[in-house]
Amino acid sequence: MKTCLLLVWLVLAAVLTLPAIAEDSPAKAFRIVLKAYDGDPQRTKDYSKFSFQIDTIDLRQPSEFLNLGQMIPNTKFKLVKFVFKEAFDEKQKELTDVSELLIVNTITGQTVTLPFNKVVDASAANARPAPAK
What we know:
single chain; 133 residues; alpha+beta; four-stranded antiparallel beta sheet; 1 helix
């Protein structure tokens, strides 16, 4: 009977630790979106005063409105650079915003580009290494 209880206890302990192991897995997806920004990038090149709406889909936290140089809460990512871009959309026959926000993992130095209004997997497997200076 003691052996059976010990076996049940070991199995239960193993099952309870599995979610903790899975959460720490580096292969876990981390999706992030640049949803909006304030200011008119056509009038100024000083984007340091702009606020950027960042949605972290997999973290289940509210949208954050951050400036360049700030950390994305509960992540290792920092907002580094904003590039305003427009492209002509043949379907809609007008210019559309295709701006990009560059974020960097402060621990590994890997960079991730967030195109405007597109979901990006920012996990380490999909991040690009930082460019050489």
